[in-house]
Amino acid sequence: MEIREFRAETDVDGWLEVERTAAAVDAPGVVAGCRAELLGRLRVPAAGTRMLRRVAVRDGRIDGILGIGLPTLDNLDNAEVDLTVRPDARRRGIGTALYQELRRVLRAEGRSRLLAESVRALPDGPPRPDAGTPFATAMGAARAQTEARRVLNTTGLSLDRLAEQVEEYRRAAGADYTLLTWSGATPDDLVAGRAVLSSRFIGEVPLGDIEWEPEKIDVARVREYERSGAARGHRNYHAMVRHEPSGELVAWTELVGYGCRRDTMDQEITLVLPEHRGHRLGLLTKLANLHQAMSDVPELTSVHTWNATENAHMIAINEQLGFRIVDLWDAWQQSV
């Protein structure tokens, strides 16, 4: 077996095959193995992150992949790690070899902490392999937080009914709040407000024991996020609420669609500033954004979202919308 650097000219298909085969077993329904996504990541790295990639090659086939994301603007002690082994090649030392390479790279890069995630079945759900938990534990990582993935089946939703609900919640919020929606790049008059909300997000959501400092997001960084997403074929949908007396943006939610699959989207950030909670602005933005995305992409059949298991308020909102739990995602942290 050989552990070496990823080669863009020869390794794309092998990398994607590992992603696809692992996701089919470990996390059915999750977007993985997307060529446009990987090629976009190679062309335009994510804003504020330097990526390093390694592959494990055995008998001419890529059997394991290692992605190492090194934040460059903040969280300079941290590294975000994705270590995946093909299901039919597990328990042969490939994961351990990649982990040893990971530790070597992190020491060379001056990083002292790694963060990774794994997925497991619900305790009372259909059985599913759990390769991540025993591996992370054996490597000495500690579980820092657990998130639950929930999926919304959109096929039974009515656009007319969604529009009615949006209007009901908009009226209930009152004249002080204005709903704003768009897709693609953030309008120039809103991008500074989006940067403020992005910067506040980490400080407002439960992180469990994860050591991650708030990110300092400015307009330039927002535009970098948008450019990197567009390069990957992402379709982004946003709903925000502006508080008219102050002119501030006080609520925001985002859906992300993928170039290789039009049938599914991921629910990303949802944030309502604490001083404006109690007006159902979270539901208002989520309903409006769902209506916008479904109107634009008739093929959409499911939306996936992840919430910390201790985030009872957001879980209640999502379940009211019809999201149903499917599996658990553990965040693992280790000092190196």
Description:
With 336 residues, the chain is α+β, with helices and mostly antiparallel strands. The protein has two domains: 2-140, Aminopeptidase; 152-327, Aminopeptidase. The protein is built from nine helices and twelve strands. It has helices at 12-26, 35-43, 94-109, 132-138, 159-173, 188-204, 219-231, 281-296, 312-321, and strands at 2-5, 49-58, 61-71, 78-85, 113-121, 142-153, 177-183, 235-243, 248-258, 261-272, 302-308, 324-335. Strands 1-2-3-4-5-12-6-11-10-9-8-7 form a twelve-stranded mixed beta sheet, with helices on both faces. Helix 2 packs across helix 7 (219-231). The protein is globular and about 65 Å long. The protein starts with a strand and ends with a strand.
Question: Keyphrases for this structure?
Answer:
336 residues; alpha+beta; Aminopeptidase; 12-stranded mixed sheet; 12 strands
